[in-house]
UniProtKB/TrEMBL annotation:
<feature type="compositionally biased region" description="Acidic residues">
    <location>
        <begin position="247"/>
        <end position="256"/>
    </location>
</feature>
<dbReference type="GO" id="GO:0003677">
    <property type="term" value="F:DNA binding"/>
</dbReference>
<feature type="region of interest" description="Disordered">
    <location>
        <begin position="236"/>
        <end position="256"/>
    </location>
</feature>
<dbReference type="InterPro" id="IPR018356">
    <property type="entry name" value="Tscrpt_reg_HTH_DeoR_CS"/>
</dbReference>
<protein>
    <submittedName>
        <fullName>DeoR/GlpR transcriptional regulator</fullName>
    </submittedName>
</protein>
<keyword id="KW-0805">Transcription regulation</keyword>
<dbReference type="InterPro" id="IPR036390">
    <property type="entry name" value="WH_DNA-bd_sf"/>
</dbReference>
<dbReference type="InterPro" id="IPR001034">
    <property type="entry name" value="DeoR_HTH"/>
</dbReference>
<keyword id="KW-0238">DNA-binding</keyword>
<dbReference type="InterPro" id="IPR050313">
    <property type="entry name" value="Carb_Metab_HTH_regulators"/>
</dbReference>
<dbReference type="InterPro" id="IPR014036">
    <property type="entry name" value="DeoR-like_C"/>
</dbReference>
<dbReference type="InterPro" id="IPR037171">
    <property type="entry name" value="NagB/RpiA_transferase-like"/>
</dbReference>
<feature type="domain" description="HTH deoR-type">
    <location>
        <begin position="3"/>
        <end position="58"/>
    </location>
</feature>
<dbReference type="Pfam" id="PF00455">
    <property type="entry name" value="DeoRC"/>
</dbReference>
<dbReference type="InterPro" id="IPR036388">
    <property type="entry name" value="WH-like_DNA-bd_sf"/>
</dbReference>
<keyword id="KW-0804">Transcription</keyword>
<dbReference type="Pfam" id="PF08220">
    <property type="entry name" value="HTH_DeoR"/>
</dbReference>
Amino acid sequence: MLTDDRRRGIVAAVRRRGSVPVAELAGSFAASEATIRRDLEHLASGGLVRRVRGGACDPRGDARPEPDPRGFAQVARDAAGPKREVARLAAGLVEEGDVIALDIGTTVAAMCPFLQEKSITVVTASIAVVNALAGARDIELVVLGGILRPTYGSLVGSITESALRQVRVDRAFLGTSGIRADGTVLDTTPSEVPIKRGLLDIAISSCLLADSGKLPGTGYLEVAPLDRFDVLATDRPPSADALTPDPDSDLEVLTP
């Protein structure tokens, strides 16, 4: 591949994903990691990517405001009924003795009332989840450290990512800002994307919570393809226009 073509491809990948590690780019473009690093330095000098430890991210994300200035409490009130129904379905997957991970986000936090009486361990970077479950007698809380993102009450950054690599869970429950028709799960906040991917990496099984408003929803950062999840919990079956299922996928769709 010509150098200019490879560099254009790198910029496209970073903009599509939000952040991409050097090793992944090297594999995608059949180049050495040293070559990719030189490409990233060149692209960073022109402002097309921003170099970060181990890779590069989209510099356009640095200037974006918080994706939802309303904050966690207001977002939680929006579509509260569908979110609660999705949360109830997802909570029904949790078994006594499970170690589970709960993502940040209002739909995942809505699972907490349905978990109160279970004897489980909960790993989370969500302050809302911590507050909701702190008084539950039989729930052991493992709180991931990190930098506080005040508007959404979540912990992010390299400390959070490092802490994630030290645990394993039976089930991970993630939220999303949107799902494209091709099954790409999206988010809007660059600092949250590595946490979501980390949750998928440490889980034996995973469930995506998405009310029907998230199909397609919003988002410009790719988190993962839908086939990385075992279960999609939603409040009504997705239409063919909203989601084109992979015929080879084992994804289970939970609806009321």
